[in-house]
Amino acid sequence: MAGDRPERGTSVSTVLGRRLGGELLRMREARGLRQTHAAEALTASVPKVAKMERGLVPMRDPDIRALCHLYETDDAATLGRLLSLAKLDRERRKAKGWWHHSPNAGSLTEYVALEDVANRVRNWQLSLVPGLCQTRAYARALEVSYGAWQDPDEIEHVVEVRMRRQARLGGEQPLQMYAVVWEAALRQLVGGAEVMRKQLEHLTDLAGLPNVRLQVLPYRAGGHPCITGPFNIVSFAETEAVDVVHVDGIASTVWVENADDSATYAAFFDRTARLSLAPRDSVALIDTIRKEL
Predict the structure, then answer these.
(1) What's the chain's Rg over C-alpha atoms?
(2) Is the CB of residue 245 less than 8 Å from the CB of residue 179?
(3) For the chain, which residues make up each domain, given as ranges?
(4) What is the 3-state secondary structure (H, E, C) of 57-86?
(5) Hey, which of 104, 118, 154, 186 has its CA 20 to 30 A from 283?
């Protein structure tokens, strides 16, 4: 994942907070009110309201109720959704997970914070083995090939972050992972033949887990809906929580945080999955490629 590379200054995810703040901002503007009105309703400062609307601070339930009252939003479903979103954001902030102690995690910090409170992740990959499925040797070879490191220790920090993420695939409430991978990712010799051989073995082992579904899109499938690039769809247990889509590029990261657009990504993922091999046939292809090495 390109976002595993260092980007100084990222300390905590604000994706959920931004979504919550953005909705409250739109509600305020729809009523023709200014931040000063919101500040008066909360007995707070205007700078604090600005931070809330930008997702920079957690929001308390009484504040959300007060703002909804000010904005004349009495719909119980809307209020319940905002309160649920705020709760999820507060839990993520309070978790202060291990990733906060990994300064070299870069923009991956924001994604891992979401993944840690998620219950399901759908991953589409064109050219790489998904991060949750990578062996240490494969992950290290990827970082070495990146070639822009100033200090070799940075490579080990990033690799360690990726390895620790994989703990979410186990435990009492394991993350549900559904990965669809293009055949090219399995044939690209990252780290050489021996590294790839062990990586493919690891993939087949993971495919046997009850919470993992792995499919391979073969070359022969031809054109497909997701041909333009990889992405992750992060889902949460709360029924009101909208899926968050993470699209990682070479020089930037895009977060898709609204229901309509995330549903579009989900539909494209499902169409590509239908063009892919069934899980059993996918494992057979992976094993064939491994034996060819």
Answers:
(1) 21
(2) no
(3) 15-95, 118-292
(4) CCCCHHHHHHHHHHCCCCCHHHHHHHHHHH
(5) 118
Find out if CATH 1.20.58 is the number for domain 118-292: no
- How far is it, in rounded angstroms, from Cα 163 to Cα 45? 43
Q: Say if 15-95 and 118-292 have the same CATH topology.
A: no
pTM (two decimals): 0.72
Q: Using one digit for the tens of pLDDT, what is the confidence trace for 115-157? A: 877 899 999 999 999 999 999 999 999 988 877 777 778 888 8
The stretches of the chain forming alpha helices (DSSP H) are 15-30, 35-42, 46-53, 61-70, 76-95, 108-117, 136-146, 152-165, 183-187, 193-207, 259-275, 279-292
Tokens coding 117: 């409170």
